[in-house]
């Protein structure tokens, strides 16, 4: 029987097996740190996006967990709360979908912090312990020098995680992994080229997901080896011309996530 993805809406009874991989594998690390974000619109439809968790410290050294997504994902949610698709481990070694509502607006306005020019938003969040532990270190966000130093360019593979059309990889609500090739040149410096293109089909529900490199992604044979995996950016939109999708994703550089984090109160 062919595998079919699932539309995750309510906590189901079926339990997906727990993933197993070395802790250093950023691919599995990013999967564990990526969640579905959604909000019903009252007409039988819902807004769906993706977000990922970053571990950081505030100015006083207090550890905090930050949810990163595309700004438009939150802007298109008119309500005061969104549902975050947490996943909880079970006593039998599996996982179950365990979503919870999280505030995104107060009476005086949005609770998130957004980048002034790019489609990036960051929200400090109280995450379940499993997710707080899975948050990706802030140091793995690419900075201005990363793409230059590593010679990232056309044809290099990067991964993306999301929930295309609201689908998840299984009933436990894990994101779907996609791979695409860098379709832009040049991709640096960031001041001149704040976004780049990735060659793969994009759907509603992919927005806000991380775009990243891990050792299983292919690069040119002569490219310098990265010292560690890195998050290259945030997927923000699909390229369309005349209403037709071109199977190209627009990615905002991770530097703008760093800049947005710096704006947090």
UniProtKB/TrEMBL annotation:
<dbReference type="Pfam" id="PF13365">
    <property type="entry name" value="Trypsin_2"/>
</dbReference>
<keyword id="KW-0645">Protease</keyword>
<keyword id="KW-0378">Hydrolase</keyword>
<dbReference type="GO" id="GO:0008233">
    <property type="term" value="F:peptidase activity"/>
</dbReference>
<dbReference type="InterPro" id="IPR009003">
    <property type="entry name" value="Peptidase_S1_PA"/>
</dbReference>
<protein>
    <submittedName>
        <fullName>Serine protease</fullName>
    </submittedName>
</protein>
<dbReference type="GO" id="GO:0006508">
    <property type="term" value="P:proteolysis"/>
</dbReference>
């Amino acid at each position: 029987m062919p595998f079919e993805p699932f539309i995750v809406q309510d906590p189901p009874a079926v339990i997906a097996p727990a993933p197993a991989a070395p802790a250093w594998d950023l691919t599995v690390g990013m999967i564990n740190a990526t969640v579905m974000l959604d909000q019903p619109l009252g007409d039988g439809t819902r807004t769906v996006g993706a977000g990922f968790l970053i571990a950081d410290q505030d100015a006083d050294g207090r550890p905090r967990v930050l949810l990163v997504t595309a700004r438009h994902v939150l802007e298109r949610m008119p309500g005061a709360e969104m549902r975050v698709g947490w996943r909880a481990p079970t006593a039998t070694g599996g996982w179950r979908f365990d979503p919870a509502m999280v505030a995104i607006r107060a009476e005086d306005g949005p609770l998130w912090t957004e980048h002034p020019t790019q489609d990036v938003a960051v929200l400090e969040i109280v995450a379940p312990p499993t997710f707080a532990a899975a948050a990706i270190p802030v140091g793995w966000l690419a900075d201005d020098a990363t793409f230059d130093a590593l010679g990232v360019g056309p044809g290099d593979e990067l991964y993306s995680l999301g929930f295309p059309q609201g689908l998840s990889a299984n009933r436990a609500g894990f994101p779907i992994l996609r791979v695409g090739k860098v379709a832009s040149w040049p991709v640096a410096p960031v001041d001149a080229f704040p976004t780049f293109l990735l060659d793969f089909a994009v759907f509603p529900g992919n927005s806000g997901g991380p775009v990243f490199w891990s050792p299983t992604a292919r690069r040119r044979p002569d490219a310098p080896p990265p010292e560690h995996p890195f998050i290259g950016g945030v997927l923000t939109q699909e390229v369309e011309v005349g209403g037709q999708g071109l199977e190209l994703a627009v990615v905002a550089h991770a530097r703008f996530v760093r800049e947005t984090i710096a704006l947090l109160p």
